[in-house]
Structure formats: structure tokens, C-alpha cells
Amino acid sequence: MTGYLFIETRDPFESRDTEFVAETAAALKERDSEVTVFLVQNGVLAARRGARERYLSRLAEAGVRVLADDFSLRERGIAGDDLRAGVSQSSVGALVEMLARGETKAIWH
Amino acid sequence: MEEKTLTIALMNPPYESANSTTAFRIIAAALRQGLRVNVFAYEGAVCLPLKEQAPHANPVKGTTVEEEDHPTTSKFVSALLEMGGDRLTWVNCGLCVDERGASNAVEGVRRGSPADFFKMAEGSTNTLVIPTR
Questions:
Q1: Confidence class of residue B40 from pLDDT cuts 50, 70 and 90?
Q2: What CATH number is attached to the domain comprising A43?
Q3: Where in the sequence is the domain holding A95, given as residue range(s)?
Q4: Cβ of B29 under 8 Å from any chain A Cβ?
Q5: Range list of H helices, chain A
Q6: Selected residue of B2, B3, B25 to mutate for chain A interface (largest A Cβ count, 10 A)
């Protein structure tokens, strides 16, 4: 089965077009695809538990797997136990494992 | 076991975006996992492996060049090429190099064209395009 991997680098507080990724990811999930959003760089900024931006929770509720890069989290002072519900800490190594599955379509944003 | 290959297209010039750092981390992780990696550097990314890059001191902290040990992107590229050996192929777009006068790349970087990117992508398990925006 084709899986979709969205690599989200943008800060949702700065770039409203993160909504586009969220809507696309949720729509693909509705069509029974395996969908992952991997947050990296400033993309992790909405992953903090107290952040008011709710699009990540909506994604998780839609069944999309939401992962956050550990290196980016550390750089921004976000501890692994300070992540909002539905977001899991991950790594670039795990990202490569997903890419190494040929059926994964990767989209960088 | 089937050998896996990842192709990555880069476009960001040095010191412009965290995309370059993330790309270096992905390349390193892929090599550590035993994958072959092709990099096609396009537009400003052809300056990533430029030999002339020099590290700088940090006047804010008052540190010298040696104390600061500032990492240049060319040092990252050299380190990756050394780490990957024949499992890492780095191709700089020739036209982009000529436009920028950026031909003096570190050892191991090859000159090519978008046709190389097409061939790399065709022969890869997966391809990741990292655009500037």
C-alpha cells in the first residue's frame, strides 16, 4: 500500500500554508492511506503541549501519525515529555527507514 | 538483501536555511543504515561543497577561529563523502556551477546535469526533493 510521508519544516504560527499539508494528509488518510507527518526544524514549534495551535491534534484525531524530530525539539527547548497528545518523538533515522520503503511517497514542505 | 538507494535533490545555498543541515543529517543517517545515497545539488546548493569556504571567529563571544571551530558546509560534504565512500555520489549541476563561478568543489564532487538527476531517481528506491520554499 502506498504510504505518504509529509516532512513539515514550517512553523505554523508563521506559515499558514501548513494547513494545506494538514488538509491533504487528513484527506489521504480518509482514503485509507498510511499517512505520516514528520515535523522537523521549525515545524516542531506547534508540538509543545501548551501551544495554542491545534492543527496537530486535529491530524492525530484524523488518524495521521505525527512524529517530531528529536534534534529539532532539543534545539528549541522542547522536552520529549512536553509534547502534545498525538505527537511522538522520533528521529531522522526513523525518517530514513520510512524513505527506504519504496512505496512511500515523500513530500517536503 | 536488495540494496536500497536514496536520491536527494538539494537547492538551498549555504547558510540560508536549516534545510541544508537537515539534508546532511538525512544523508548521514542513510549511510549509517547502509543505503546508497545520490545527491543532486542544483542552483545555490552547488556552493555547499565550495573549497574556498573559510570558518570565522565569533566577535560576540570573543572567540578565535580555532576556538569557535565553525563548521562550513564544505567540511560537512567532505565528511559525508569520506563516511560514505563509494556509497555516496554527489553531483553538482554544471550550469549552476558555471553561473556562480563555483567550480572549486571539495574532492569527490562530480559535475553533471539534470539528466543525471533523472537517472538517479529512476534507479532509486526513493527520491526526496528538498526545495528552497
A1: very high
A2: 3.40.1260.10
A3: 3-108
A4: yes
A5: 18-30, 55-61, 70-75, 92-99
A6: B25
